[in-house]
Structures are given as C-alpha cells and as structure tokens.
Amino acid sequence: MFGGWRPEALRADTGQDAWLRYAPLETAAKAKYASLPASVVVLGHSPVLRTAQEEMIRGVRGMMAKTLRAEKGVAERAIVLGTLAAMHAAGYSLKAPKLEGDGFWLTTGQIQGIDCLIVASTSDLGVLYGVFALLSKIARDQTFSSLDEVQQPYALIRWVEQWDNLNGTIERGYAGPSIFFENGDVRADLRRVGQYARLLASIGVNGCTINNVNADPRIIDDSFLPQLARIANEFRPWGVRLAVSVDLSSPKVIGGLDSFDPVDPRVIEWWRAKVSKIYQQIPDFGGFVVKADSEGRPGPSSYGRTPADAATVIARALKPHGGLLLYRAFAYDHHLDWRNPKNDRARAAYDIFHPLDGQFDDNVIIQIKYGPIDFQAREPVSPLLGRLERTNEGIELQITQEYTGQQRHLCFLPTMWKEILDFDLHVSGNKTPVKDLVAGKVFHRPTGALVGVANVGLDANWLGHPLAMANLYGFGRLAWDPNLSGEAVAEEWTRLAFGNDPLVVKTITDMQRASWYVYESYTGPLGAQTLTDILGSHYGPGIESSERNGWGQWHRADHDGIGMDRTVATGTGYTGQYPPAIQNRYESVRATPDELLLFFHHVPYTYLLHSGKTVIQHIYDSHYDGAEEAADFVRQWKSLQHHVDEERYAAVLARLEYQAGHAIVWRDAICNWFFRTSGIRDAKGRVDHHPHRIEAETMQLQGYGSIEVHPWENASGGEGIECVTPSGCTATLRFDRPAGWYEIDVQYFDQNNGESKFRVFVGNQQVDEWIANDHFPATKPSGDSSTRRRIPGLALRPGDEIRVQGIPDGEEHAPLDYIEVRASPAER
Amino acid sequence: MFGGWRPEALRADTGQDAWLRYAPLETAAKAKYASLPASVVVLGHSPVLRTAQEEMIRGVRGMMAKTLRAEKGVAERAIVLGTLAAMHAAGYSLKAPKLEGDGFWLTTGQIQGIDCLIVASTSDLGVLYGVFALLSKIARDQTFSSLDEVQQPYALIRWVEQWDNLNGTIERGYAGPSIFFENGDVRADLRRVGQYARLLASIGVNGCTINNVNADPRIIDDSFLPQLARIANEFRPWGVRLAVSVDLSSPKVIGGLDSFDPVDPRVIEWWRAKVSKIYQQIPDFGGFVVKADSEGRPGPSSYGRTPADAATVIARALKPHGGLLLYRAFAYDHHLDWRNPKNDRARAAYDIFHPLDGQFDDNVIIQIKYGPIDFQAREPVSPLLGRLERTNEGIELQITQEYTGQQRHLCFLPTMWKEILDFDLHVSGNKTPVKDLVAGKVFHRPTGALVGVANVGLDANWLGHPLAMANLYGFGRLAWDPNLSGEAVAEEWTRLAFGNDPLVVKTITDMQRASWYVYESYTGPLGAQTLTDILGSHYGPGIESSERNGWGQWHRADHDGIGMDRTVATGTGYTGQYPPAIQNRYESVRATPDELLLFFHHVPYTYLLHSGKTVIQHIYDSHYDGAEEAADFVRQWKSLQHHVDEERYAAVLARLEYQAGHAIVWRDAICNWFFRTSGIRDAKGRVDHHPHRIEAETMQLQGYGSIEVHPWENASGGEGIECVTPSGCTATLRFDRPAGWYEIDVQYFDQNNGESKFRVFVGNQQVDEWIANDHFPATKPSGDSSTRRRIPGLALRPGDEIRVQGIPDGEEHAPLDYIEVRASPAER
Fold it and tell me: Residue B172: is its pLDDT beyond 80?
C-alpha cells in the first residue's frame, strides 16, 4: 500500500499499475487539491471498506505525497467513507439521493457541524467504487469544489472472463502466460491476481471467470477447490467475485457417474453437493459459465435435453447460495453444409435459445456475443439480444483482440462497443437500445450483464500493447455507464495512463478513436467480416479460409460478386430474426447501411454503394486508405517523443511501425485476391502495380531459392525466397534510379520456429542488420509472419548494388518476400 | 554500429551510451542539418580511420535517421575524412593551417570543384577526434554553416587509469566490478571494454592503464600477456593505448631472480626481455605506471637506490618500442611521528623528487597528484608541479569520487580541476599556470600529461550516479583543452547526455557548477581537508581519524585552535617548496586565502577570516549552508520531472534525496565535534540544538536497547539504538504539538551486512515501510551508514503515538539514531 520498497521506486513505467499510477501531480494541480481534508474516516468494518480506506490513502500519497489519517469517526474535516446505513447509525444526518446496488454518492456537506467530503453508498463495494471515482478525478485534474454527484451502475453483472488453461496457457491470450495457473495448478505467487482485482474494481467490474470456457473439468474437482479459494481470497478485498467455467460432463468425468444427463437425479444431486462444497470454501463464489454443445464441447443434446434443462440443474444448485449461471448462447453446428445456400451459422443462437425463452431460472443469464458470428471487426447486433423477454440476458464483448489485431495492431474497441450498445433494436416500438436490453431494463429482468473476455497475462503491462489497456478500461467504464462516449473513455484513460499534458491527451485520444475504423478498413470490408485465417491464427489475412467448410463464416465471394444473402425473401431468412423495423432495414439491399451490406446481401462487385463507389472500388480504396492511416499513427506518435516516458514511447513506436507494415500485407492480400477473383481493375491503378517493389524471386540470388506461399495472396506475387544454407544466402539487385535519399523496406517472414538474421548492404557497406526473433503465430512464410523492416535515409546512386543477406536459424529459412525502394519522404 | 538489434532499441536509457547517445534530433534541428552531404569519404586504411568513418555514419544515423554512404573518393558532395598527407596524395589541394599531433581541422571547402565538409588531421587518430567533434556539434544543436575550426590537444598524454584488481574488484571503484578482470583473468566478454574505449576516444583520451597501481605482478607474467593483448585489440580501433601498472619487485616475484635491484644487470635484462615480449604481442603498447616505496609497496629504497634508478631501468627497456613510464610521485612515509610538529607528509613528493630533477630519461613522466596530500576536496596545488625543470611531469586527477562522495554525492570535479589547472605558480616570473607546466610548455619538455583515475565499473551507467559521468567527460575535455570553462564543459555534457531542452540544460549545468562548493562546504572547511574517515572508507565523517597516527593527514584541531602550521618561519617549512611569489602568499596568515587557511596555518577558533567571520562560526555556517544547498538540489531536480526520462529522473532523485540526508549527518558530526572541542557556541544557535529532533534512545523502547556509536559525533547524542530480537522492536513517542501537516525524518543506519526492515506507524496506521538494503561501506552504525528516510505529508494531531518498528536482519540490528518531526514545507 505504500508504493513499494525504495528500489522499486526507481523503475521506469512498466505498465503494471495501468491507469492507477497515482503519479505525482504537477505543482499547480497539487495546489488545487491542497484543501483536501487530512483524515479519511471509514464507518464500519469489512475487507472491502478497509480496501477503500487504504486505496484513498494510497492514491493521495502517490499524487500529493500526503498520508491521510485513517480514522474511525469524524472529529475534524475528513473524507468520510461509508454506507448510508452506517452514516445513519453514526448519527450523521444526510439528505441522501436515492442509491441502488453498488452506486455511490460523492458530495460535500457538514457532518456534526464539520465540513466533510463524503463518499456514500448502499453497499461497502459502492463505497470502494466511489473512492476510485474520487481519485480518478484528482488524477485527471478535475475540479470538485462543489461536488454532488451520483453514479449508478447500469447493469448488475459486470464481469470479465479469462480463457486461461490450467497448464498456464491462455486461449487467445497475447500477453504472456496465465496469472492464475501454472503446470496444472494455481500459481504459488498470486500477487498479480490481487493487482488485477484492484484494476477491475477501479472500473466497477465485480466478477471474474478465471478459466477457459472450453473448461477442464478438474477446475471443480474437490482437490482443486482449496486452490480456487486462494484466488478468491485475492479477489475478496476488491469486491470481485470468483467464477469458473464448467464442463457439463463433469458429473461423469470427475464425478464418477455414468451419465451427465441433466434430468438424472444423480446428476442433479451431484451438482447440488458440488456447489455446496464450493461455497463452504468460497462463501462469496460468483457462479459458473457454461459453453455447451458448441465447437465440440459436450452438452445436453447428448441426452436429447435442451440448454434450459442443462441450465436448470446447475442454477438450482447455485440458487441457495446466491450464485449465478452464465449460459453462453455461442452454440452452433460447425459442420454446416456450405453447399446449401439456406444454411446460416448466424441463425444458430436465436434458433436455439429463442424457443426456450421463459424456461430459465431467475439466476440464469444467457450470455450472448454482440454479433451473430464471432467477435468480427464488424457484425450486426445479435438479434437474440432483442428477443428474450422472460429470460435474463447479457452481452459478451471481447477485450482481447482475437480478430482485431491481437494487441499487435492498435484497435480501441469501445468505439465499436458503443455502436452496439447504442443500437436501437426497436423491440417494442419504444427506444430499446442494446444497453437497456442487456441491463434488463426493457423487460424488467432482475439481472442484466455485460461480460468482457479480457485474457490479461503475466506480461508486466497485462495486455502486451501499452495502448491496449484502454480496452480493458473502456469495457469496465461502459459496463458501468454505457452512456459515456467513446471519446470520453479514451480521454479518461489517456489522462490516467499518460498524464494531463494536452498534446499527449489529444494525440492519444485521437489515435484511439480512429483506430477501430482504421483496422476495419484494411481488414474486412462492408460487413464481410474480418477476412482473416479463421481456421488457425485469426490474425493475418486468410480470405478463403472462410469458404467451403462447415464453420459457416462464409462471405461467398466469387467471380461475380460477394456477400451472404441472409434475407427472408431470397436468402437464409436470418433477417427475420430481427424485430420488424430492423428486419425491414436489413431485408432491403438499399436500406442496409454500406458497412453491413455484405453481411446481408450478395451483390455484384459493380454494385453501387450509398457512397457512390462500386463495391470493388470501395474494397481497393478502403484498404489503401487504411494502410495510409496506419502509417500516420507512426507520425502522430512520434510527435509525443519527450512527452511520454522513453520506455513506453519506444514500445508503442515499435508496435505502430510493425502495424503500418502489416497493414500493407493486409491491403495487398485483399486487393490482389479481389482483383484476381473479380478481374476488375483498380480505377486508381494501385492494385497489382508496385513501381518501387522488387520481388525477391526476381533478384539475383545466391543460395536463395523461390518458394510458393499459401494462400498465394499473402506474398507479393504469390512467391518468396528462402535459404537453407546454414552460412546464409544473398539476394541482390542493381539500383538504376536517380541519385537521392531513399528508404528501403524489406518484407520478410518472421516465424516462431527460428531466429534468422538479416543484413542489408549497399555496395560493400552494411546499412542495417536485424534478427527475426518475434513470435508471430506462424511456422511458415504467411500473412501472419510477413513483416516489414524499414531502413530510412539511404543515399543511393545509379549503379548501386543492394544486397540482402539472410542467415537461417532452426526451421526459419530467412524467408524474404520483396523489397521496396522509395524516395525518402522529404524528397518525394 | 547500427544501434543494435531491434529489441535493444526498446530499452529505456540505461546510461551505457553516456554522452554518445546520438538521440534523434528534434525536427527543427534535423532541418538545420538537412544539407549535410550524403557521403562520407575516408582517405586511407587503418583501424582508426575505419572507426572514424563508421562513427560518422553511426552518429548521423542515430540523430537524423540517414545512413551516409561510405566512399573511398570524392565524386559528389561529401564529408571527407583523412590526414593532410592523404589529402595531398589524393590531389586535394587545401590551404591547411598548422596542425600538430592529433589536432584536427574542421572546415568546408572545395575538393576537385565539389563542396565538401572536411575533417583533416596530421594523424589518423586526429581524424577520429575531428569526427567526434563534428558529431558533438550536431548533437548540441550548434550551427556550422561557415565551419573553419582548428583544435589541438594541450598535452600529448591524456590517459585514464583504472585501479582494477585481477580478481574483478576495483580499489575505490563505486559502480560494480571490473570491466576488464574477473576471477584472476581477463573477462571473456570484452564488449564493455570496446564501449569504454569509444567513450574515451570521443573526449580525446589516448591511453588507459587498466590495473591497480598497487599492482599484482602477475599482470605482466608471460602467461598473462595474451590476455592483455585481447584488451589491446578492443582499444586499438579507438586509438586508446593499453598501459599497465607494474610492481617493481616483479623480477623477483614472477621473474625468478633473487633481487629486483634496478642496477643489477640481471634485473635490467629481465625488464628488457619482458618489455620486448609485451611489444611482440601488443605493438602499440603504451607503457607502465609505477607506484613504489609508498604505502607499503616495494621500491628502490630496498636497495638504497633512488626512484630515478628504478625509473631508468624500465624506461630504457621501453624506449626502443616507444613506450612511456609514468612514475608516481605519490610516495611518502606513512609511519610519520605525529608528535613532531615539524613532520609533514605534504613535503614528501617534493623532497623525494625535486633532488632527482634531470635524472630521468625522456620517456619518463613524473605523475604528480594535484595536491600534496591525497585527492582531498580542497588542497593547494602541489609545489612539485612547478619545480621539475628538466624532467617530464604530469598531473594526476581523480575522476572516481574517493574523497568527494563516492558517486553517492553530486560533485562536479572539473570546477576544482579548473582552479588547479589555471593556478599560476609564478615559477619564472611569467605566467606559468599549472596547465602549461603539466603540458610541458613552460620548460619545453617533449611530453606532458594529464592523467585521471576513472574506475568505471560494470554498472550500466559506468560510474553509478547518472550525473557523475560529467566528471569523466570533463576530465577528457580539460585534458584536451584546459582553457575551456567548467561551465562550458558542464553544459556540453548536459546537452549530450540529456538533450537541448533549455530548462534541462540550465538546471543541470547550474547544479553541476555548484556541486563541488556545496560538497566542500558540508565536509572539509578552510583547507583542513575532507574531514572523513581516512583510515577506512574515505566516505562519511571521521574527524579524528586523521590525528595521532602516522598517516600524516593531520589538521591539528584541539581545544584552542585548528590547522597545520606549514610556514617556514614557525612550521614544517612546506611553504618553502613553492616559488617565491606563492611562498610569500602562503607564508603569511593574512595573505593566505580563507579556503586554504587551515592547510597552512594553525589559528585559534576565534581568528577572523577575510569574510569577517571567526573560524568557528565559518565552520558552523558553511556546514548549515551546505546542507541547505544539498537539499535544494532535490528541489531543482524535481523541476525536471517530465523533462528527462523517467528512469534517470528517478535514479538521480533517489541519490539527491540520500545526499541531502547525508549532508546533515556531515553537518551535525562536524559542528558538534567542533562545538564540543572548542566550547564555543554557534552564534545562530543551531548547533547542538535540534528542537524537532527526538533521540531514539529517549523514546519509549520495546526490545530496542541503546548503543554507543564511535566516534561519538557520527550519531546524534553519540548514541543510537539497536534491536537483536528477531521478531523486531519498537521505539515510540507521543506527539504533543499542534495539529497540522508534518514530515517525519527517520535517521537510521544502513549497513552492508544485513537488510533490516523498518515500519513507521501513527497510532495504528502504518504510514511507511522500507528495507535498509543499500550497500554503504559500513558494518556498524556509523557516519558511513547513517541514512535518512523522509516521510512527507503526515497529518499529526496532539496525542498521536508515533512508532518506529525495526526488524533486524543478519548482523544489521535495525539501528536507529533519531527521528525529526517538522511542519511540512508549505505550512512551515
């Protein structure tokens, strides 16, 4: 609680404190808060109240170098923390506004004749949330001289989920191993878990599911429960409830029964007894998450039972203890026949769960992904969100950037989440935005939920990309208050994570706000989904991986056109799942907004968008524009040199430079594929025309040999070169353009199964060298491993020999795609 | 040469590149140099010329992201590097100024009709120096549109010495183990050695002695020579000559002879053959340094020979190969009878070496410490510097802060060195400043020398304190050009190490310039030398350690007065060693400047200084002022937050805060000692009166017991407390002052033989905790280990119980001296 031992104070910012840095305020700001009371009074006793008081002290200590007095009663001006009930019991008469659940009230007022700053709530946890809100105001240099503010959480359940495996890996985690598990057990050192709980509490997140939805049944084995209890102990002071994902076959796999049929009395008893044992050890246990009958997971269908049958047995075991069951609606047949144009994976959640509306107990929440497919960069809102009237529902968002750049690319997701949460489904004639539906406000459900899949890891900065933590922050803030704007969230986070320098605040906020649109524009066009490799990495381009298989992420692009016809009239009928107003919009090709056109309709490439462009030209333009904008992020970030700490400056710069290069890989793959498929040229003459590009396979090669890259569009010209000579190979070209300043981009492949070395020479002069030692999700030359190295500021002369030397390592054969030689920006 | 592999580029500044960071220029500065030629032509072949060309490319690449073309001839606008001879041979006609030695000429001019930027010298090494000068101008944002500048080194020999032991330790090294040796051998990894040579070359240092002057004879054992050759290989490309310290008894100890008598023909032959073998392996070997007949080292006196005899045999062995012998004048009897008021260690160098003037060969240099004692914070200039007319001499300065704070305290030594180098000894009626004497200019000696004892270590930032590298930089710069001002040197270094932000440049330059005066003012007064523990650490206060022993660093302070009478009239006669003008000044107590008064005269404490103060009041005032100024460094540094990188910001802040606390330890030890010794009160009532101090031994103790600290003045009240109960002890007091914001300073002892833990409570509230895990040179409570922990911003109320808990570890018994409770600055 004291900012650590002295040696730790010497470290540069590693990102571990994320938005809770409590960095020393500037002198002027410090003066603004000089009249802050010297005492902090907490009324009552509980681990959470103790945390609230300690956090208040810690925050003021960090920002103002003052240690508030921890007091039990008001004897002088004080910051008073407590529930309204405790204030009343202490005889402090306050005219309190209406407060519910974990909402809080920040105000100034007299207590026993003494001016105080009051943080009140109906719950201990609400008091903690109020403390974080107050500290955030100070850190963001906000004035609160006449403070009188009430905040209420929008939805009761604001949980994050982690897809951690017991062996310590994380499915779709991009920032190191699990903070919870290691080698099949809970880690001995749980300090990061406590730190994580603190971060979660600070944004109002009140639960965390710690293991993969593809659950290992052992997670609730009796022998494992004491280990879970250790994690719950770390969560408890922060009001974060522990939950786990369970496997429906557990009664059979770890319970020794010969069945897991949810209506079998032995199964019912098994769940009852199991849950009871859990609560003996973890009295505030949050509940379970279930993924069943989906992507190969066991489920009630094995016994001809419905999800409602399965949910009921578990929910009733949880009910006496106050536990919740989050039952995922992400269930679909992944062996769909792609030849049948009526088949549509997008229909699955609605088709399965809508008929069951009303059959779930009140402590069950149907957890629905925001779109009908799977966390694509752009999807329409899931129709199921508007159609459960007698069942609790929640929305599942994804903080970890599975399909949105895996924390290698900047992609601020609250912008997307805001579009989804604000989307009006027109369910009942009134305004029924998704945020109201998932909060239970529309159908007056007792429980609503916003769930985010976070997947933080042991990397010091939790998510890998130093700017990606804005997504975790933004999830919590929007779950608490979805009426906040994306801009406000981005600015709040920037101030907390980087301070209040106006240039820094504006630049980072602007970059974050633009980033999702930029990512979308160089990956998936017009609602055709993220055109990534859906069968493997979910990272780089993989256009045809969606097609001709049972996974159902089809975009149906062929020689003539692209898009899934999901209309009632001629397609899969999916649009019929929406309420009439929305159905009408999506049923009509003209009424469908451009950005979702291809999700709902199959159109020819020459179809004219509302923008006035043809579909094909839009594909070309958006990918070129997007790659340009990604490059511009680098320029914007560079303006912050000396305005942010050197460590994060360098780390972010490296990621943005990589992103700018990978955006070109995406651009070229998609443009080339659509050009070859459609046969329609880019009106602006850019596609398949790279005047400054020299294919490696056309260079003069020594040792290097050409290879085909699959799919072909992921390498320029479909080919690259590789070197199997241990001492290395070279690729050479003669420069024949006018003398001047140039930059050379070397496009190479950086696999995760070797660390090749590269050197670049102009004549006999070595001008660069690097090791391809990053860990992209690729063991061969591909759109995942394709990487750009920029060598700026080279004075080239006609006749110069440019030579790239590659030295292979392991299974990585120093593979090269092409080089580009362009005039340096100043002289272009 | 390319700024490293990509992962290294992500690191925060560790200080490894010191003043050669080549950080990217701001955009405006980059524009200023946009017209820099695109090529760099080097004329000729040599390792040093290759280095020069590579460094030019590296620097421009780092600062401007441009890679200059390495060319062999001028075909277009170019930066042309080469000797005048090579330029002439290439047919480039230049009207060159007169250049000598390794001087260089930076100019612009036409070569074969093409505008070029020219770096010319008479030597390859001079070309390298010119390249560093050019790059430094760019890094410091200097204009050089009409460049025409000649620089000549002032003295031929500009060497650093390292006191590294073969086991890897460094005598008087404060920044980690040796970069050269480990476990008795040269280290396998010599990368740091090459980096060091680059730093040295960049400031014109052309030689480096790598081992302790208390030399292990094995350094020149035949079996060791191949290891030395490896180091020389790292030095060679940077024009740094390798030298070693040798032990005069080597012919006996490693040579198998039964004598090392310098006139014994077998000894003469042994040295001849040994040197010959060295040069076979290291053709550019620099030579030897000798410390003999000093502090227990063997020497010619064993055989009744003189230093000249000893020097001659070695010099003649070196002569045919061009090697030099640096013979240290630091020779004295350390068993002087302190009872004899005529004895005076200060006389030794002159008494021994002056009679031998003219008896040394031309490749011998007498290496003379700047003062007659030993690197004290203030000494008069050594008289021997002015009295060797027929012998080469050099001055020995100390970069490692042995007596000046050991890189724990900020102490910019070039300020002192400038006073010394500019000091006019009036040897011949003309102006004869020390800089001219040691450069050989006064008596027209062939060789002059400036030698600096550097003692860099394996710590990433070389010297420990991030601001201490200004001393190494400043040594090189002043050795090259002693006419530079200290301010200019400080500013140059600041710009190179921290960039050109005006606030940063001004603040750090000002701090550096003040720092030596500040250090002197809270340590040693009026030329009485650094009043440190001269028998051990040479670090914290140890006033009486100088007295009543044979080491001769006496200040003769007693009840009545203080100072060494070194006059001819009534004292040791030391003043008689100076030329008449200087002798007259120091012989007269009135003519002696205040700052050296006590070095030359014994005076009563009531003696009135030129300043109008009594000696005793000066002692009190200067120590209080000095401690205040040390505290002010913290304030100044804090103004740079967000202007320098966070890592160095935090590291420097921690050292300055420590220094501010240790300055108080110094202040109190010296003031209390002189108060008790003289019985004269401080006219300002500060000494021995600390209204806000509570002695630990007077607090309510549980488990803690009092201990005496020796010498008594190094702990407040002569006592402290310690705890031998493993579970810990407490010391408690009741606060009885008005309510308000306070800060508490806890004065504790941080030894190097344990890591005690401390916690501080106000009532039941823990307000701070820390571990005493620094490594001060102390195994007991002392002036070396005394350390201050400041706890700012505490709201205290009358009746509060303040409790310090100490938990011992190892041999460190959580020792405490006192605590101070003061109103917080804003409310004072």
Answer: yes
Exposed/middle/buried for A779, CB within 10 Å: 0-12, 13-18, 19+? Answer: middle
Residue pairs between chains A and B whose CB atoms are closer than 8 Å: 132
Interchain CB contact of B3 with A (< 8 Å): no
Of A12, A67, A793, nearest to B647 by CB-CB distance is: A12
**If you average pLDDT over residues B779-808, what whole number do you get?**
97
Q: How confident is the model at residue B814 (pLDDT cuts 50, 70, 90)?
A: very high
Question: Is there a contact between B48 and B239 (Cβ–Cβ < 8 Å)?
Answer: yes
Distances (CA, A) of A483 to A386, A414, A437, B606, B787: 19, 12, 14, 78, 53
Q: Are A198 and A147 in contact (CB under 8 A)?
A: no
Q: Mind giving me the DSSP string for A777-813?
A: S-SSSSTTTEEEEEEEEEEE-TT-EEEEEEE-BTTB-
Q: What are B242's two structure tokens?
A: 């390798």
Secondary structure letter of residue A608 according to DSSP: B
Segment (H or E) for B227: helix B225-235
Percent of chain A with pLDDT over 90: 92
pLDDT of residue B4: 34
B362: distance to nearest CA of chain A, Å? 44
Token pair for residue A139?
A: 């850190």
Cβ within 8 Å of A, B 355-394? none
List pLDDT tens digits, range A504-523. Answer: 999 999 999 999 999 999 99
Residue type at A525 in one-letter notation: P
Alpha-carbon distance B599 to B652, whole Å? 34
Average predicted confidence (pLDDT) for chain B: 95
Residues 6+ apart with CB under 8 A from A167: A181, A182, A183, A184
- Give the N- to C-terminal CA distance of chain B in Å, as an integer: 55
Chain B partners of A68 at a C-beta cutoff of 8 Å?
Answer: 795
Among B72, B755, B765, B771, the residue to mutate for chain A (most A Cβ within 10 A): B765
B164 given a catalytic annotation: no
Mean pLDDT to the nearest integer, B561-568: 97
Rounding to the nearest 10 degrees, give the CA dihedral for residues B461, B466, B472, B477: 120
What sign for the dihedral angle of Cα A232, A236, A238, A242? positive
List A55, A164, A402, A722, catalytic entry: A402
**Closest Cβ–Cβ partner in A34, A645, A765 for B645:** A645
Chain A, 732 to 761: residues with Cβ < 8 Å from chain B are 739, 741
Handedness of CA B381, B382, B386, B391 (dihedral sign): negative
Convert the pLDDT of each residue in A456-468 to its tens digit: 999 999 999 999 9
Interface contact A650-B11, CB threshold 8 A: yes
Shortest distance, CA A53 to any CA of chain B (angstroms): 11
- Nearest Cα residue in chain A from B34: A826
Q: What is the ipTM of this complex?
A: 0.86
Shortest Cα–Cα distance, A179 to chain B (Å): 24
Please check whether residue A65 touches B, CB under 8 A.
yes
H/E run at residue A265: helix A265-281
How far from B590 is each of B138, B594, B809, CA to CA, in Å?
A: 50, 9, 54
3-class SS at A328?
strand
Nearest to B545 by CA among B688, B453, B663, B673: B673
Shortest CB distance from B645 goes to which of A65, A646, A794? A646
CA distance B344 to B565: 10
Q: Which residues, including other chains, have CB under 8 Å from residue A250's CB and lie 6 or more apart?
A: A217, A220, A260, A274
Rounded to two decimals, what is the model's pTM? 0.91
Residues 621-650 of A with CB under 8 A from B: 641-643, 645-647, 650
Q: Looking at the DSSP assignment, which residues form a beta bridge with residue A805?
A: A730, A759
| Residue spans of beta strands (DSSP E) within B470-573 | 561-562
